Amino acid sequence: MFTCKKTYRDIAFAHRQHLHVGHCSLIHGHNWGISLTFACRGLDSNGFVVDFGELKYLKLWIDEHLDHACLFNQDDPYVEALLEQYNGLFKAYLLPNCSCEGIAQHLHGIFDPMVRERTSGRAWITNIEIMEDSKNSATFQPQK
Ligand SMILES: [Zn+2]
After folding, report:
1. In angstroms, what is the span from residue 113 Cα to ligand 1's centroid?
2. What average pLDDT values come out for the chain (144 residues) when binned by 10 residues?
3. In this predicted structure, what is the pLDDT of residue 90?
4. Does domain 2-140 have CATH number 3.30.479.10?
5. 44 CA distance to ligand 1 centroid (A)?
């Protein structure tokens, strides 16, 4: 099996973890990093796992949904009221769990099918690392 890795850095977005007993329950931002590890058994005609020049669809998705967004857990009790009262003041993105771990798992569920489709099933995403700053990160790697 071959792997290669693409990293997107300095993506500004905010999140709030409403169940956290500490300051993570407050809306706060990071300059995030997203590292995607691609895998395949057979290389493409260029000898690549994936062509880095053809990954713009992933960057576009990140820009559209995450860049300058505010991420909330879907079960955040304040999210509905916030969206209603401050409509237009921020770009909200809801997911089951907006921790680093939860974002990594969520993005795997979105990006892995996109990569499989674009490569006709030849390549997939084996690992996603989410870096919330230069010190802290978490990785999601699906069970085999
Ligand atoms: Zn945080």
Report:
1. 27
2. 98 94 92 98 97 97 98 95 89 96 98 98 98 95 87
3. 87
4. yes
5. 38
